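Quick question, first post here. What does this chain look like in 3D?
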Amino acid sequence: MPGPPVAPVEAAGPPPAPRLSPILAISITLVVVLAGAALFMSGYTTGRQAASDPGTPASDTEAFQPFWDTYHMINDRYAGGEVDRSILVQGAIRGLIDSLGDPYSAYLTSEEYRQSLQGISGQFEGIGAEIRARATDGTDDCSPLGATCRLVVTRPIPGSPAESAGVRAEDVVLLVDGASIDGLTVAEAVERIRGPKGTVVTLTIERGAQAPIEIAITRDVVQQQEVESEVLADGTVGYLRVSGFSDAAADQVVVALTDHLAAGRTDLILDVRGNPGGYVTAARKIASQFIASGPVFWEQDAQGGQVATEALTDGIATDPKIRLVVLVDGGSASASEIVAGALQDAQRATLVGQQSFGKGTVQQWQELTGEGGAFKLTIARWLTPDKRWIHGVGLTPDVVVTLPDPLPAGTDPTLEKALEVFGRSAGTGMERLAA
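> Answer (accepted):
Ran it through. Tokens below.
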């Protein structure tokens, strides 16, 4: 075999290289080929890792390597059954979120995410009836359902499928789609009654002394009535109970306030007891009805930066002549505390009741692609206008009410104390208004 071409010698140089023996040449060639193979295999391994470990920054490769090693081992070698990679990924995401140890950050499946959004938006898919367990002796909230504990409709929500189908307050639900609900909790029975929009559920109803009747109801999206509006003290005090903080609830508060102001009521009670919160946009709108200007709350991000969320400028009850009492308790949390804290710091309201829950963080939802579900992550702290962080502490009412244990049925010492702040008594009782 001819060798490579020889370059012409134009000047003196180093002596020519010694001729290699055939065996040595073969040995060197073999090393080069093996070295090339090693480089090829190294390139293949690196390429495989880069392709299957997408998005891992080079600086984090070492930290993430145990995760990817575990993932590949499960995906390639697990012999206990078929591996659903989507479930594997969801489990990994859940583990990431759970490892934070934050009770307010969580991973949710697609269905859990859908239900959660419906809950905080004040909407759900079902028949639209308020239901509770009632014992045969007249006491509420018994469990489980059965001969002495019955599922009773307290009221159909106005405009709901239940109302349209003819369901009435005090109807007793005996069967759901022909199946007994004995032995279930109220929550379990409600889960059977609820269902996707457009589907039909049949309730067997007992109404007074009549024979049981069947009512078929087509489920739909139902907007909860999150604001109850009433008048107290012989019509002189307006009372608003807010059970959620959806955007619809904020609108309902404005409607109810408008009615009270139009009737000349300047003493108002805002009851957020037992309200777990909701959207900060709703909290801002409700607080802004009473605060003319200034911050409603501050947000502090992960880097410590603080940004104020200012009151809206279209509040309808900002006149100082309008007196306000806010009722709080240990169930008042999150958006409820944003409103109560803003009104307290602005000296716009008197807080009456018990120490609030103490949730001072803000969560943001992040949808994941495909069927990956979503997660909510704590992305900020919120502080009152005076920059108090009440997380784990709660708001201390201006007027603390100690409740007797047990609380006598039909009594409400906190509401009675609120009326005393106005120098009034309950009068002839409550009159419900449309809100």
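The longest strand covers residues 374-383.
The domain at 126-223 is CATH 2.30.42.10 (Pdz3 Domain).
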